[in-house]
Amino acid sequence: MAQKPWDGRFSEKTDRSVEAFTSSIDIDKRLYRQDIEGSIAHCNMLAKQSIISEDESSVMIQGLGKIKREIESGSFVYDDSLEDIHMHIENSLNEKIGKVSQKLHTARSRNDQVALDARLYLREESEKTIKLLHDFREVIIQLAKRHIDVIMPGYTHLQRAQPVLFSHHMMAYYEMFSRDTQRFCDGLKRINEIPLGSAALAGTTYPIDREYTAEQLEFHKISANSIDAVSDRDFIIEFLSAASICMMHLSRISEELILWSSYEFKFIEMPDSFATGSSIMPQKKNPDVPELVRGKTGRVYGNLVALLTIMKSLPLAYNRDMQEDKEPLFDTVDTLDACINIYIRMLPNLKINKDIMYKASNEGFLNATEMADYLVTEGMPFREAHGCVGKAVSFALENKKELHELTLNELKKFSLHIKNEIFDLFTPEQMINRRKVFGGTATENVKAAIKKAEKELKDEIG
């Protein structure tokens, strides 16, 4: 059994069941790289401030490098009695270089150490997620460009409402995922604050140089309050919140792909390589990928609620409850990145059934608002026009016709304002291209939105 850092205080060895229960090594061992990186920066600072010698610093840094190589080669041995990755690395360093290793923890606590590791990890993962969202938004843009001439019904309440360009519909998701990108970018500002130097909760008496440590680890800000620094998990909660919103957007597009690929819609066809079949029904082609993304959304929501619940009543400063922050964080990072990645690969391979979408745009009285707007331009108040068209729709339903299938004489029964020119306005193309208001579905608008989005993505990289 490895010696505990606190053994001097206790007269009994830790019970094996307690060691197993309190161990987090199976979860937090993925932080080994950040832990070693933070320790090297801390070691350099201690030497710079003459708290330890340059020779001692050099020996410790070399030892830390060996530990990193052992972990990455798979030869490193883990032990529940050492609880977490921090104690594993500290114990291994002691075995490699002897007593000098015990100086590494000078002016540092596991409290500010674990907070540092979490920030280093989440900074890196946030940047990866931002890059994935960039690539995903590029996929959406290309899909919109490729199908700029496809017309589909737009929906409210899942009822056909007005015709829109399929590209306009897809660019709505571009806007959603752009906001997600902004949220993750904004979160980086608060992640990028170094807690190291706060020690357990009160700071340290050693003459450390926090600015130097921050510079080595490329942190832009130093935590202003030592108690807050070791007890803060807002930056993780904020990431989980941004991830939950992003997953909500992924779930919404998933739901639409599931609906659109159904036999009832037939708007799209999922690529065979991203679908599965049934174990009993030979005809089935199931949209399992979007279904799983939709399902995983609930898991990410659960992770956010879990950490909020863990933190909701903790007194300052550090409490062991906070060890439970890693599992929801790691699971959310892995789940979100996997979902974005699968969409980046799947979305370009969708088959868009243009003719079926167009046919649906000509059915269901999608030109009713167009007729009301026409009557307004002819001098009728909108509410009166609305009622007039409602009566025309009822008449058309009784006669099993669409509005554009009624004769001019039939339409004139509802208003003498109606002239033959109204039929020119009833085509889906006209209904779309007359909506030139900024943000509307007119083709020229959507092309401009795509061009603007392409520039935004290019500027993000540049």
Set out the fold topology:
Elements: H1 16-22, H2 25-28, H3 32-48, H4 54-73, H5 85-97, H6 110-146, E1 151-156, E2 159-165, H7 166-191, E3 193-194, H8 210-216, E4 221-222, H9 226-231, H10 234-260, E5 268-269, H11 288-311, H12 326-346, E6 351-352, H13 354-361, H14 368-377, H15 382-398, H16 408-412, H17 422-425, H18 428-433, H19 443-461
Parallel strand pairs: 3-4
Antiparallel strand pairs: 1-2, 5-6
Helix pairs in contact: 3-4, 3-6, 3-8, 4-5, 6-7, 6-12, 6-19, 7-10, 7-19, 10-11, 10-12, 11-12, 14-15
Any descriptors?
462 residues, mainly alpha, Fumarase C, Chain A, domain 2, 3 domains, two-stranded antiparallel sheet, two-stranded parallel ribbon, 19 helices, 6 strands, elongated
